[in-house]
Write a structure and sequence with these properties.
CATH class of the largest domain: Alpha Beta
Distance between the termini: 58 Å
Oligomer: single chain
CATH superfamily of the largest domain: HUPs
Structural class: alpha/beta
Largest sheet: 4 strands, parallel
Shape: globular
Number of domains: 3
Number of strands: 15
CATH architecture of the largest domain: 3-Layer(aba) Sandwich
Number of helices: 15
């Protein structure tokens, strides 16, 4: 298995720290708002990373942090006129609602930043004692000039860093690129005790502490969106190297941007779609298919026409399983012949090549094509087995039955529409026939000023 490592800027063979085990840390949400569909791309992809490692027989520990104290939460609490803790609770609950709607199983751990403040204070104190940090008026900063390897992940040079879009302007800092480790609290803001006075930790410190606490000083994979390479992940590495000499994680994986008209989707640019709003229009599997049809490191444009095509593609896969009455044979023994194994190997080869989900999906459709032409249930089983690695077919029984119910509802509505047409043409005989035929099937029609309503009667 090969993974593109942002740290080395090349594909590398994946070798876990401990044979048979994989530890993964993904930067999760800052709980100040609902997450947008660009965030969803990252969350969905790392769900696939976890799935695939499990499929290959690894024992996976998957951690996704939650930032529940930050300037953004404070700003939102002022906007909504409720306490910061209530803001955090509101949007953490929303995060779980939306990830569940996307079909993403829960991580093994969801560390909250506010639960690890003491450990963060200890790390900052250690960095200060080693000469990597300095305090000014209750604020503590990391000195990037003290770190000879700063820029190892992003490739940025210290001499090129100036105050701007991604570097905070602050006259207290010795260098514009120095970043906050501890921030003095203002009146009314969340605060904790520290050697430098009351305040709260910086975002970059949170992830260092929480990942170490749950996965160790060095672990296998650290993930996030490409926008986190700098400054967030760069600053994580700086603290880790300064305190222990380690690079924190051995493989750094970053997903590409989701763009709107060629521009990165983000809340700061106000050009985003909330995941929960997109889910009102499109099925979760259609969204998943849309993202996985492109390589995770590539930038893609949000395109509703392509999501609609993705929806149809998933319907085509489900239609094959319906035609074979798959649920009836779901638990039967599987016997893969050489042809089945060859296709399975092609799927594994695609996924082993830096999680090439686009190529893996093409293998699924090759299997689907053969399944439809051969009516071979073993191909159907293979389709479901490999599809589930990508997060499809996870609620197969419910999905098939729901789709059948949806078709039935659409047929009822179609008959109602025909009845309305016959009524307009004053063809009362056909209009009454549709009403009576539906009634004989247990479907009662009721004409109202707002239109015709129907219900199932016993």
């Amino acid at each position: 298995m090969k993974i593109y490592n942002t740290l080395t800027r090349k594909k590398e063979e994946f070798v876990p720290l401990e044979p048979g085990k994989v530890n993964i840390y993904l930067c999760g949400p800052t709980a100040y708002n609902y997450f947008h569909i660009g965030n969803a791309r990252t969350f969905l992809f790392f769900d696939i990373v976890r799935n695939y490692f499990k499929y290959r027989g690894f024992q996976v520990t998957y951690v996704q942090n939650i930032t529940d104290v930050d300037d953004k939460l404070i700003d939102q609490s002022i906007k909504e006129k409720i306490p910061v803790s209530d803001i955090a609770e509101k949007y953490i609950n929303a995060f779980f609602e939306d990830t569940n709607s996307l079909g993403i199983p829960k991580a093994d751990y969801y560390p909250h930043a506010t639960k690890y403040i003491e450990e963060m204070v200890r790390l900052i104190k250690e960095l200060e004692e080693k000469g990597y940090a300095y305090e000014v008026n209750g604020d503590v900063y990391f000195s990037i000039n003290a770190d000879k390897k700063y820029g190892i992940l992003s490739g940025k040079k210290i001499e090129d860093l100036k105050a701007g879009a991604r570097v905070e302007k602050n006259i207290q800092k010795k260098h514009p690129g120095d970043f906050t480790l501890w921030k003095r609290s203002k009146p009314g803001e969340p605060k904790w005790q520290s050697p430098w006075g009351e305040g709260r930790p910086g975002w970059h410190t949170e992830c260092v502490v929480m990942s170490r606490k749950l996965l160790g000083e060095t672990f296998d994979i650290h993930g996030g969106g490409i926008d986190l390479i700098f400054p967030h992940h760069e600053n994580e590495i700086a603290q880790a190297q300064a305190s222990t000499g380690s690079i924190h994680a051995r493989y750094w994986m970053h997903g590409g941007y989701l763009n709107i008209s060629g521009e990165k989707m983000s809340k700061s640019l106000d050009n985003f779609f909330l995941t929960r709003d997109v889910l009102k229009k499109y099925d979760a599997e259609a969204i998943r298919f849309f993202f996985l049809s492109k390589h995770y490191r590539s930038s893609i444009d949000y395109n509703e026409d392509l999501i609609k095509e993705s929806s149809q593609a998933m319907k085509n896969l489900y239609s094959i399983l319906k035609e074979l009455d798959y649920l009836k044979y779901e638990d039967e023994d599987i016997s893969y012949a050489e042809t089945h194994q060859k296709l399975k190997d092609q799927f594994i080869e695609a996924m082993d090549d830096d999680f090439n989900t686009a190529k893996a999906i093409s293998v699924l459709f090759e299997i689907a094509k053969i399944t439809r032409s051969s009516n071979d249930m073993n191909f159907a089983h293979l389709l479901v087995e490999l599809g589930q690695v990508l997060g499809f077919f996870t609620n197969l029984e419910e999905k098939l039955e729901t789709d059948l119910n949806q078709i039935s509802e659409e047929l009822i509505q179609l008959l109602i529409n025909y009845r309305q047409l016959f009524k307009k043409e004053q063809n009362w005989r056909m209009a009454d026939k549709i009403r009576n035929d539906l009634k004989s099937l247990g479907i009662q029609l009721k004409d109202t000023p707002a239109g015709t309503e129907w219900e199932i009667v016993k």
